[in-house]
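Severity: low
Component: inverse-folding endpoint
Summary: output formatting inconsistent between runs
Steps to reproduce: submit the following C-alpha cells with default settings.
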C-alpha cells in the first residue's frame, strides 16, 4: 500500500463510523437536538474554523458531514492526502461532539477531552513569552513504560505543553506520574479521535488571537503552521486511521515523528521516521525549529515552567513557610557592587532536615543585586518574578508576595535531596539569567531563624515596602513623561498593540508600566518601546497623536487610532489572552464585566467565551474591551464614559477579588463606601430585567452612582442605539 492508500483507507473508515454515529444520534434524539462542545463560543470549533459555518443541531451536523465528503478527493497527490487528513480530523470532531450530547460529561480523570476557550486564552501569555515553547502531541503506546515516561518528562522539563492520546495515558499512570493542566501534561482521551481536542486548541488560537476569518482555510493553515509550535509523536504500530489523522496534522503544519517503519513513507520535514524513541525529543524540536533556552541550576529536582501550576497538598508536604502565621518576607535590595559577593548563597538558621514533618516555619530571603544599570524601580519587578521562579521547581509551591508569601516543599522533593539553599540557587540563577542587562552581581541570604525573620520582616522589608507604595501611589498617567508599547502578543496576534501606562497595565494582567520600563531597559529593541505623550488630542478620551503614530507603526498599519480611556471610541485592541472583558448592557445603561474563569451567563445574554469572540485578534469593537483585573479599580477605567460608576455587574468571585481596591477608588472619586455592594453578580441576576430590578432596589443605575448625570446617560444611550443599529 502507498501512503495515499493508507490515508484514504483511514479516512473512509472514520467517515463510515461518523455517518453511523450521526444517524444513530438522530434516531435517538431527533434531528433538532442541540449539539455543541461546552464552554466555547465556536460550537464545533474545527468545522467552524475550516468552513465558517456554525453547527448547532444534529440536522446541521448531518449536512456538515456532506461538506466534509467533498474534501475526500482521491487523486494521488499530496494535497489530496492532506485534505483527506483534514476530513478525517473533522469526522473525529463530529464523533467527539456526540459524546457531549444532552449535557453529557464523557471524560473522567485523568482525561480532559474538550478544552474550554478559557483554557486556550490562559495559555496565550506563556506561549507568546516562550514559557511554553511548544506543544507536543504524544499518540499511542511507547515500546516500554520507561521510554514513554522518559519522553514525557523530557518535554515537561523543557516547559513544553504535553498532550496525551491513547495507551501512553495508562503508561504514565502506571509509573505514578502526575498529570493535569497544572503540570502541563494533559491526557486528552484514550480513543484516537480524542486527538481532535488538541487540533481544536490550535484552530481556536487562530480565531482567538489571529483574527483569522472562519472559513478562510488557507490563512488558517498558514497561521497554525507559522505561529502554533506543535508536533506529533506517534508510536508504532500505526493503523490507517492514525496515518489519516497524521495527514491532517501535517496539513496544519505539525510534523509527525514516528518509530514506525512498515508501510510508511517519509515526507521531508513533515513525516519523519525516527526508530530510536529516545531521540524523539531532539528530532521533534529540530523539525519544528523550537529553540530551548537552557538554564543550568544545580538542584536535585527538575526546574521548568511546566511545574508552575503544581499544587502541593498538606498531606504531601514536608514543611511549610506561611507568612500569614509566622514572620516571612521576600525582598530585593539594590546595593553597591562592593557589598555583593556574586553567587554567594547563605542560609541563616535551620535547614529542612532540622524541621519537623508538616511543620510551619519562618523564612525570609533577601536578594542583594548590584549593577551599573540597576534602578530601585526595578526591585518590585524582580520580586514579582520570585513567584514564577520558585513555582518552576518540581515539588515546591509558592503563592503570595512581599511578607505574605507561602512556600511548601513536598515530601518527594525533600527525599530527592532538596534543601533551603536550593531556593537560593534558583533565585540567583533566574535573576542573573533574566535581568543580566541590569544585574551584574547577585547574592542571596535566606533566613530561617525565627528571630532573624522577625527582624528582617519588620525592620528591613516592611519599611522598604511602605516607601515603595508611597512612590507607586504618585505614579499616575499625568505624572510620567512617557508611556510604553507592548507587542509581546504579536507572536499570535500580529495587529495587536498594548499601550501601557501607570494607571493601565497590559490587558493580560502581567505587564505594568514599571515592567514595561524595565523590559525596555533590558532590551531597548524589544517588545516594549517608549511612546511620548507630547501631542494630546483629547485627554479625557486618552487620545494622543503620539499614541496613534505608535500603534500605526507597531501594528504595521492595521490600527490608526486608539484611545486609552474609552470603550466606545477607538478602544484599545486585544490579543485574546485578556483576564476580563467588559461590554455595554443597554437595559441598565451600565457596563457588565466577566472574567475568564467565570463559566456562567451574564446579563448581556452571553457567556465569557461569547463576549470574547466579539473582540480579540487585534480588532476594535466599540462597546466591548478586553482588560486586566487590576484595571477595573483604576481611576482611568472607561473614564470617558463615566468611569467605574458605570459598572453594574460582575461575577461574585471577581467582585471579591477587586473589592478592596475598587472600594478605595470609589471612596476617593465619589465618597461612596462599600461600592461593590451596589454591583450585581450571578447570585442576584443573570438577565437584564433582574439586574435592573436589583439596581433599582439599591437606588443605583448605570447612569452613575451618586452623580446621575442625565446628559451623559442620554449620550451613552445614543451610542448604544447606534451600536445596535
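Observed output (run 2 of 3):
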Amino acid at each position: 500500500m502507498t501512503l495515499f492508500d493508507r490515508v484514504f483507507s483511514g479516512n473512509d473508515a472514520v467517515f463510515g463510523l461518523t455517518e453511523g454515529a450521526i444517524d444513530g444520534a438522530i434516531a435517538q434524539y431527533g434531528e433538532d437536538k442541540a449539539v455543541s462542545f461546552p464552554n466555547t463560543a465556536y460550537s464545533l470549533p474545527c468545522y467552524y474554523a475550516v468552513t465558517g459555518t456554525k453547527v448547532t443541531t444534529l440536522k446541521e451536523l448531518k449536512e456538515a458531514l456532506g461538506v466534509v465528503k467533498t474534501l475526500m478527493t482521491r487523486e494521488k497527490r499530496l494535497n489530496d492526502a492532506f485534505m483527506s487528513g483534514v476530513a478525517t480530523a473533522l469526522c473525529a470532531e463530529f464523533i467527539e461532539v456526540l459524546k457531549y450530547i444532552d449535557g453529557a460529561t464523557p471524560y473522567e480523570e485523568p482525561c480532559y477531552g474538550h478544552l474550554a476557550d478559557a483554557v486556550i486564552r490562559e495559555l496565550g501569555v506563556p506561549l507568546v513569552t516562550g514559557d511554553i515553547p511548544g506543544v507536543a502531541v504524544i499518540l499511542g503506546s511507547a515500546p516500554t513504560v520507561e521510554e514513554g515516561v522518559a519522553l514525557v518528562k523530557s518535554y515537561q522539563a523543557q516547559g513544553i505543553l504535553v498532550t496525551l492520546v491513547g495507551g501512553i495515558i495508562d503508561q504514565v499512570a502506571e509509573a505514578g506520574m502526575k498529570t493535569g493542566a497544572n503540570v502541563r501534561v494533559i491526557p486528552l482521551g484514550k480513543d484516537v479521535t480524542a486527538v481532535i481536542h488538541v487540533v481544536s486548541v490550535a484552530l481556536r488560537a487562530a480565531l482567538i488571537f489571529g483574527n483569522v476569518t472562519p472559513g478562510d482555510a488557507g490563512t488558517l493553515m498558514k497561521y497554525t503552521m507559522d505561529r502554533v509550535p506543535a508536533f506529533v509523536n506517534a508510536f508504532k504500530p500505526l493503523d490507517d486511521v492514525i496515518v489519516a489523522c497524521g495527514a491532517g496534522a501535517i496539513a496544519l503544519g505539525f510534523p509527525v515523528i514516528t518509530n514506525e517503519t512498515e508501510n510508511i513513507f517519509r515526507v521531508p520535514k513533515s513525516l519523519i521516521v525516527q526508530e530510536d524513541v529516545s531521540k524523539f525529543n531532539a528530532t521533534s524540536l529540530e523539525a519544528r525549529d523550537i529553540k530551548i533556552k537552557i538554564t543550568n541550576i544545580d538542584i536535585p529536582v527538575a526546574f521548568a515552567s511546566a511545574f508552575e501550576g503544581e499544587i502541593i497538598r498538606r498531606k504531601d508536604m514536608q514543611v511549610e513557610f506561611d507568612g500569614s502565621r509566622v514572620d516571612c518576607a521576600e525582598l530585593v535590595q539594590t546595593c553597591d557592587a562592593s557589598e555583593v559577593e556574586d553567587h554567594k548563597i547563605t542560609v541563616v538558621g535551620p535547614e529542612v532536615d532540622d524541621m519537623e514533618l508538616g511543620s510551619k516555619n519562618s523564612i525570609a530571603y533577601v536578594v542583594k543585586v548590584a549593577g551599573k544599570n540597576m534602578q530601585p524601580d526595578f526591585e518590585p519587578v524582580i520580586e514579582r518574578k520570585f513567584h514564577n521562579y520558585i513555582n518552576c521547581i518540581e515539588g515546591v509551591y509558592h503563592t503570595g508576595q512581599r511578607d505574605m508569601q507561602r512556600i511548601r516543599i513536598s515530601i518527594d522533593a525533600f527525599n530527592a535531596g532538596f534543601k533551603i539553599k536550593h531556593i537560593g540557587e534558583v533565585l540567583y540563577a533566574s535573576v542573573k539569567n533574566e535581568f543580566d542587562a541590569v544585574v551584574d552581581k547577585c547574592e542571596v541570604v535566606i533566613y530561617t531563624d525565627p528571630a532573624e525573620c522577625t527582624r528582617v520582616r519588620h525592620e528591613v522589608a516592611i519599611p522598604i515596602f511602605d516607601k515603595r507604595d508611597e512612590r507607586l501611589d504618585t505614579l499616575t498617567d499625568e505624572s510620567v513623561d512617557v508611556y510604553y508599547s507592548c507587542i509581546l502578543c504579536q507572536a499570535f496576534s500580529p495587529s495587536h498593540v498594548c499601550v501601557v501606562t501607570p494607571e493601565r497595565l497590559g490587558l493580560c494582567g502581567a505587564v505594568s508600566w514599571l515592567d514595561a520600563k524595565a523590559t525596555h531597559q533590558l532590551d531597548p529593541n524589544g517588545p516594549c518601546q517608549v511612546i511620548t505623550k507630547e501631542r494630546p488630542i483629547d485627554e479625557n478620551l486618552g487620545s494622543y497623536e503620539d499614541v496613534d503614530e505608535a500603534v500605526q507603526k507597531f501594528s504595521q498599519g492595521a490600527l490608526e487610532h486608539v484611545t486609552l480611556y474609552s470603550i466606545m471610541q477607538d478602544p484599545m485592541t486585544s490579543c485574546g489572552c485578556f483576564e476580563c472583558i467588559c461590554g455595554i448592557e443597554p437595559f441598565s445603561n451600565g457596563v457588565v464585566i466577566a472574567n475568564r474563569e467565570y463559566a456562567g451567563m451574564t446579563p448581556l445574554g452571553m457567556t465569557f467565551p461569547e463576549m470574547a469572540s466579539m473582540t480579540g485578534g487585534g480588532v476594535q469593537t466599540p462597546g466591548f474591551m478586553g482588560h486586566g483585573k487590576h484595571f477595573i479599580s483604576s481611576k482611568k477605567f472607561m473614564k470617558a464614559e463615566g468611569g467605574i460608576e458605570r459598572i453594574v455587574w460582575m461575577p461574585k468571585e471577581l467582585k471579591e477579588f477587586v473589592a478592596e481596591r475598587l472600594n478605595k477608588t470609589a471612596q476617593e472619586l465619589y465618597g461612596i463606601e462599600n461600592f461593590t455592594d451596589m454591583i450585581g453578580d450571578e447570585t442576584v441576576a443573570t438577565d437584564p430585567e433582574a439586574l435592573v430590578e436589583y439596581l433599582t432596589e439599591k437606588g443605583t443605575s448605570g447612569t452613575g452612582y451618586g452623580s446621575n448625570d442625565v446628559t451623559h446617560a442620554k449620550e451613552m444611550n445614543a451610542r448604544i442605539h447606534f451600536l445596535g443599529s
